[in-house]
Amino acid sequence: MRVLVTGATSLLARRTAELLIERGDEVVCLQRHVAPLDAEQRLGDIRDRDHVAAATRGCDAIIHAAAKVGVVGSWDDYHGVNVDGTNAVVAAARANRVGRVVHVSTPSVAHVGSSIVGGLADPPVTGRHGAWYAESKAIAEQNAIAAASEELAVVAIRPHLVWGPGDTQLVGRIVQRARAGRLALVGSGAALIDTTYIDNAASALVAALDAARPDAACNGRAYVIANGEPRPIRDLILGICAAAGVEIEPREVPRRLATAVGALVEGAWRLRRASTEPPLTRFLAEQLGTAHWFDPRPARHDLGWEPTVSIDEGLRRLTAWYAEQ
Amino acid sequence: MWHVLDHGPAEPVGTIVCVHGNPTWSFHWRRFVERFGDRYRVIAVDQLGMGYSERTAQRRFAQRVGDLGDVIDALEVTGPVITVAHDWGGPISLGWVLGNTDRVVGVVLCNTGVAVPAGRRAPALIRLAASGPITDLVCHRTRTFVDGTLALSGKRVTSVARSGYRAPYRRARHRQAIADFVADVPFDDSHPSAAAIAAVAEGIRALTMPVLLAWGAADPVFDDDFAHDLAARLPHADLHRFPTMGHLVVEEADVVGVVEAWLADRVEVATVGSVAGVTRDEPPAAVMPSAAGPLEPIWAGLTRRANDPSPGFVDGATGTETSFADLHQRVMGIAAGLASAGVRPGDRVAVLVLPGVDLLASVYASWRAGAVTVIADRGLGLRGLGRAVRGARVQWVIGPTKALAAARVLRWAPRARLIAVGRRRSLGAVATLRGLARSTAPLPPEPRAGDPSAVLYTSGATGPAKGVRYTHGQMSSQCDALAALYDIDVDDRLVAAFAPFALYGPALGIASTIPDVDVTRPGTLTAEALVAAVGSVAATVVFASPAALANVVRTAGAVPDPRLASVRLVLSAGAPVPVATLRAMADLCPNATLRTPYGMTECLPVADISVPEIDAAIVGSGSSSAFAGVCVGAPVAGVLVMIAPLDFDPLLPVESVGVGVMGEVLIHAPWVSSGYDQLWRTQHDARPAGTDGNTWHRSGDVGHLDRDGRLWIEGRSVHVIDAESGPITPVPVEVAVERLDGIDRCAAVGVGPSGCQQLVVVIEDPNAPEGLASTERATRVRSAVDGSVAAVLVLHALPVDIRHNTKIDRAAVAAWAARVLAGGRA
After folding, report:
1. Cα distance from A308 to chain B (closest Cα, Å)?
2. Domain ranges of chain A
3. I need a labelling partner for A164 at 20 to 30 A (CA). Which of A101, A233, B698, B735 fits?
């Protein structure tokens, strides 16, 4: 199978491309900068429809992982990459008669701030002001799912809090802040959070790619992917810190305070048009202060996927990786 | 013009006709349409002038019966019919049923009435609403009657449903029929509808098709009296009573589920046109010859010692002794006195007497007189006690002044006749216990083995206590089983530290005593009180709850010589007994065997085990089975135990799962109680038939049988954690965790939706902060448990039951854990 992987400089897309290559698939990757992969590279902008169409030519499937993440930037930036980029991928798939698209989405497309306890992949929520990442990804997922048809199978995968060796988003930030002595827990740290070890997230994307057929149950549906091992956020953070060799006793910050501070910080960052990611955002405060875990059955049933690396095993691999660094 | 809901498949198995009352409408029956509409044709009418039917001039009762027939005919209903009715719909539907007995195969009635029950007046609320000008004001000109009806059910009716009920009655002109209905209630014989309704009330006595009364007992209008008035007219009716639900019981409770189970069981719907009601008698009470020979009456042990001057009962608090001869004489005297005071066989007698000789005498005398004793556990609390007595509908109350006052003032039994314990006939009591004891009247005939003897209310885990019905035969065979199991003979003497167990003394023909302890808190029994009680009768047998034994062990240091040399047998039951407590107790009783019977209010004993046998079980079945739950031993002689699949269908014959496989524990024994009082569905669900033809009792416990036939209990079925990987039972997890140092007690609970629940372990530790356990402790717990533990939490004190102080309320723990783990406060 010839597979186009977009956004392959990200950890998840790169790991997924590696899995595909390992099992003998032919991988083409499309991103702005060279990705450390032994694959055909089509450097360019995801918003460039002609470029995306050209890269797609001859492919059987697309894993669309290119996205703009974070909170910094204008609505136009987010909309351009996340919505226009997805539209370009869908248009290219149709034009080139590609049979399958796996759209990498995020649980935050359906996130409305309350705790999620054994939740399902709820429909995307749009019309949110300010949360541009979630808003643009929600529209993008809607557009991708709307493209599902009898000729084109589309599956949206929402990996929840992906972490692992080399991850700068979650592990990197926690360890960096812990080393700086500035790590705080939101609330009591008891909120149950499910996470996804990087290899599991990658294997889920591959499983979705294989399951995506026009007549399959998963066509036109979204799935939340996670390890299925929710843990109190404090246990996770302490586990990650221990893996990195950082001894900490985190402070506890009340959830409401954290959310308020997050809002302030976001506003200040926006006013200053800062280009670095802020230390705390409302979204992050909610993510860290309320339960977020999902019913694993739909993904396991429809995609035939099971996570293979447990949290404990993941932490062991992270420990080994930090030891090498 | 009628407004009618008419929904069903092309070929319905029958028609369910739903008739609403005042001031509701067909909306009331929407769940029936949802639930039955795929198999039955479900017709729910809006009566004329009501709901969205045409507004008409006043329709009298007889016209409304005719109207119902007209609409059923107009809808060309063919085949078998089941009527379901509420409030005013009750008599109207019954009026139609009387003319159509050839095609009505089932009748369901909810909170309705056909006559004012004997000995009382019409409900005050209805009398008020029906008093002349007020009728127009509350029913017609204002929405008071509609809103009042909804208000009676409180928050149990959702706001959405409230708007539904109100929708057709927004303006005064919509509400004329509400007032007309109220004005049609006949308060005297001259009322135009009185004769027609009276004819229905008498006519239904001839009905033979199955009848279900589904009743909200907290209805101030159609209360229990109305249910029993109907039950008296329809003696074959099944009653399911919802103790805390009100007038709109269909809205408040799962009436539709009860009706579904009832239809499946009682109304056999084979094909259209060939439907027959199944009238099933209660299974005859199991009267089996026991190991000891033919059954003797429960008081036979006492009768054998009728001339014995030695102490039969010693009151631990006062030291007062009562000889067997005196006790026998009192019991027989009171029995004769009860009969001459008017107690008839089958009458229900609430015995609200504190444990002591008066309790023994009252209970045995009631039994001898053929009455049914209603005995409620003090652990229920005042509210639960009142609910139990009220629900049991007792005709007699025996008790001290305080209890008699409660019966009257708190309206536990407003019309019961009272018998005072004490010197004076307080509060209009018809007799005193002392007076009855001196009776010279002849003894009434003895009750037979199949006759009802008792209704026991014990504190349940959740919800109102259920009344458990026993017959004389069941009680006698239970006593025989206990005597055989523990080799009880006349030389034994019993200390009942769990007071209700003192009732076994006279039945076993042995002396008994109750130690000096607060009966509402048996867990406060001290070593000093136990030593005194054992000494007072040179006791050979001690029965105590696990909590009481634990406290005895704790307080043994304060007694100079706490050794109980005369004791040969210590029994403890009611909850799992920690092995450590048993061992410490063994040190105090050097000559005693320690045994723990397993059983429940509905059946005791089921199984039995001693400390050495517990050890042998753990060693014998391999090291890992130490984590397999709590071994309660092999079923005792006469008991069959079956392990049924967790998700078995109670409507189909049940088949056992294999050895070692976890499932629900089902029991069959001659001493299993008859069933639950006035809870048709509970009874039905709790007594499935096996593929072996036996009727089984569902214990509500889950567990497995091992290779050697021993029963292992793994928890309550409602506490099973429904994880994605399959069900996880709490006890094996708890046993494994409690083996860790520094953890005495814990609870394993599930959080999250069923099918993907996460396992959470909550540790009891008064010295650690509540909330997340320390990382070190969480790691140890995780490594001790075979499986994925999502979180380890700490509580200063786990919530436990009042009675035994040992049964953990895992549902409450789970709710707390869910809140904390969702990000809430600890």
Report:
1. 14
2. 2-166+195-228+293-309
3. A101
